[in-house]
Amino acid sequence: QVQLMESGGGSVQVGGSLRLSCAASRSGVVINTMGWYRQAPGKQRELVATIATTGILTYAESVKGRFTISRDSAKDTVSLQMNGLKPEDTAVYYCNVQGYTRVERKAYWGQGIQVTVSS
Predict the structure, then answer these.
(1) Contact by Cβ (8 Å): 5, 32
(2) Which residues make Cβ contacts (< 8 Å) with residue 68, sequence separation at least 6?
(3) Which of 10, 59, 95, 105 could cross-link with 100 by S-S, CB 3.0 to 4.6 Å?
C-alpha cells in the first residue's frame, strides 16, 4: 500500500509561484514514477509532470519552462515548483505514484490540492 500526503497549494496572483510537495508512505511497494496531474472544473484530469527513477522527466507542453519537478527517492517525496502561474493553471493538483509489487503494478493517487491563480 501507498499513502500520499500533499501540501503547498493555495491562491496566488498571476505571475506568482507555488511549490507543491507530496510525501509517500509505503509498505511492500516499490515506487517507480512519481508525478503530478491536475483537473480543472469541467475538464479531464491531465498530466502535468512526471519523474522516473531513472531521472527521465516528462512535462505537459503548457507548463514547460515554468514548472520544475523534482524528487528525493530516499525520502519518497516529489515536489513541483510552479513559477509564472497563469489563470489556466487553476485546478486541483493530484500527486501520482506508479508502484509495483511482485504480483501487480498499480497507480496511487493523493486526495488533491487546490491551486487558484487570479488575475
Answers:
(1) no
(2) 80, 81, 83
(3) 105
